[in-house]
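Hi R.,

As promised, here are both runs. First protein below:
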Amino acid sequence: MKTYRWFFLAAILVALSVPASARHLPDFVELAEKYSPAVVNISAARERVASDERSGRAPELPEGMPFGDLFEHFFGERGQPGLPERRERGSMGSGFIYSADGYILTNHHVIENGSEIVVRLSDRRVFTAELIGSDPQSDVAVLKIDAEDLPTLRLGSSESLKVGEWVLAIGSPFGFDHSVTAGIVSAKGRSLPSDNYVPFIQTDVAINPGNSGGPLFNMDGEVVGINSQIYSRTGGFMGLSFAIPIDMAVEVAEQLRATGTVTRGWLGVLIQEVTRELADSFGMSRPTGALVAQVQPDSPAEKAGFRTGDVILRFNGIDVPRSSALPPIVGRTPVGSEVDVDVRRGDEEIVIGVTIEALPEEVASARSRVPAQPAQPQSLLGMQIEPLTADERSELGLGDTGIRVREVTDNPARAAGIRPGDVIAQFGNAPVTSVEEFRKQVEAAPAGRSVPVLIHRGGNPVFIALRMPNS
């Protein structure tokens, strides 16, 4: 009897010693059962022309599957030498029904260039979908199937989502319908190099090819994102996945349903990150904001009086902690809105009023941020410079400014990342009009301080921080 009592007490102590978090792990069973019927499988047929002298045929694999290129390399594609062969290639992904009359949200890249879009429901019904509209910049697409009284998902708010919160994904990885994976939100507001206008939700939910376009749920069963991308060196999941915030996706979807296109706000500046060294060169206590590397001609920014070297700190009352935060904020601003922008210019902060215009199509397809700046410095000048001709300045759009770096000889410029061929357009807050003027500006610069230098490299403007010698 005593042995039984001791065993019972030991069991209680063990149970009490288990951390509270382990005793209250989330249960995803109800979510999976309740919401899977509204998640659909999407395939889009694309015509491909192939010409190859090799014989044999690669096994048919879902698009984006790891090792697909390896199979193609070893098996090749069937075709007569020198003659093109037309084949239908299938794109595979997921989506979800958000309206009982058949409207579906998915990714643009899932249905891009599709000649026929097929939607498969959990009850095995198959529909040919109509493409209502698609937006490459946000990677959102809206489809419509001819059906009624369909199961739907509730849309939540990505704004209220917290880092560390549990989330659930349902989709068709590698064609396996209604697969469920879970994880946590690992970051918000992530900017990816190819997507300037989407502040992605980063999670550690296992997402693989075929999950694209599927829903990301919170624990209340609300859709908070559309699974869109993964970070991978192999083609498979490596612990980082990215979802489009549902708030943004709904705004895009409403425009697509209303007009078939998406209109975004446009400020008209090329921006870059404010590094610690650049912040010091601008006299800022810490790196923050978006540094204006170029004001585009005839843009809202030019009309409002923005200048190269301005640091945008707040836009319409919203803080801009880093450069990647600005494009989504501007893009979601209604066209025609008059907004105030808090800017640091020199040693003071000013407010500039600007009227937002529609983003031109040719600008939408271009990058809105300048390339990453060179490796950051810790030392000083040391370069041979030469003047530019009037034709060279005109070709670069520099007006009457700019000198060329002919050779980098030592550690002032070398440590700053300056390269031969760079064109120096601005030193500190002043334009560089000649070699002699540049010499005077360097002599007047404060010893031991970093000075912002605007250079043009390969046609792109970028600021670097150049630390002046102590003596």
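And here is the second one, sequence first, then its structure tokens:
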Amino acid sequence: MNLNSDQVVALAPDPASAKAGRGLVHPAKWPTLGQSEIMVWGECQGSGSKPYQVSVDLDGLAFKCTCPSRKFPCKHGLGLLLLAVEQPDTVKTGDPPPWAANWFAARRDKAEKKTAASAGKAATPDSPADAEAAAKRAAKRLAKMREGGAELALWLVDQVRHGLATWPQQPPAYFAGVAARMVDAQVPGLANEILRLETLLRSGDGWLQRVLGQLGRLRLLTEGLIRFDTLPAPAQADLRAWLGWPVDKEEVLVTTPPVTGHWSIVGQVLTERDRLWERRTWLLGRDSVKPALLLDFMHGQRNFPIPLAVGSRIHAALAFYPAAWPQRALLLDPPTQAEPLREPFPALADFDAALTDRAAALAANPWLLTTPFAIAGVIPVRRGNGWRLRDASGAELLLTMPDPEAWALLALSGGQPIRVFGEWTGNDLRVLSGWTDRFHGFLTTL
């Protein structure tokens, strides 16, 4: 078993499931228990006469349980995995029962068929008729999007001309109406940016500077939409992403060769808006500080189908989305060979090197909001009521972390330089993980 308790708990869809799973870490609750190199299985006695059958695929961290829970993984899967991690002597090695072996074999068969089907589809080009129809649909959508962008550009000019002094008194409907028109124009990305504008308006002291920056960003997006045809293909791909015009996964597979190797999962951020959960997972290659970002979405509960445990190293094939500064990637198949990180993740030497990297990213993709960073030799320090990170040269940058997590980071460092990974937005840094003698992750929910 290559996982630890913290990594298992991090897979829980919510704190209640983690607590309930912890309550099942008792061998007496499991009439049947067993494990092999590739899976763990068990029967957990519930309220009914028939125990629930629980299986865990260790290679890809997949769960199966016969209980009626709609959470994934459910408390029984979490409890079984915690029991195998914390009390391995109670989970005997052997051959799986038929119900567990059949599930595991079906998973492998399905994965192999999916891989073969993807390879066959990628090898078969679209017919000329299909390509022509797709081009017509794209042109029609682009024309509608431009109409929405032109309308928003006029609205932005009007706002600046009349001034922003009365904006704090505007009701939410003032911005919601503009956002709704962008949705009608098939530019949902602009609608999200307008809603972000309203959030910044209510953000307290310094709101005016932040709002002006967001207005500039909106202007840059509308200007890019107006000049879409003249942009290089990578810049068009970046702009499409921010405008909410996604690239089909099939197109990613056809245009981008996969990158296969070992990846360290060094950070994860969960965000919820209107019951839509977003999971941002950051990966670093074994020998490279160039990151990969996996984006997953689930409605209702954060029951993501593929668990990605922070602080583990996986073997996986990724295909990067077309971009001027490739960052977002597509996970081609469930990861395999998951094991805890046992060596520091690669990092840059100081803030100067990180700033150079961020400047290159923004020069290639001026619409970027957030870039990742991995820096060695930094120390968290308390300054007044806030926190900063200080690098080896003595330079300091504002650290954006809740007090309990910032104090925990300081305790981990012991006042000594440590290696950190996180997200960088403007001048604000959010640390998602750190390395001292081992990996330490911070579960971040926004």
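A quick note on the second one: The chain has four domains: 5-120, 128-243, 250-340, 351-445. Let me know what you think.

Best,
J.
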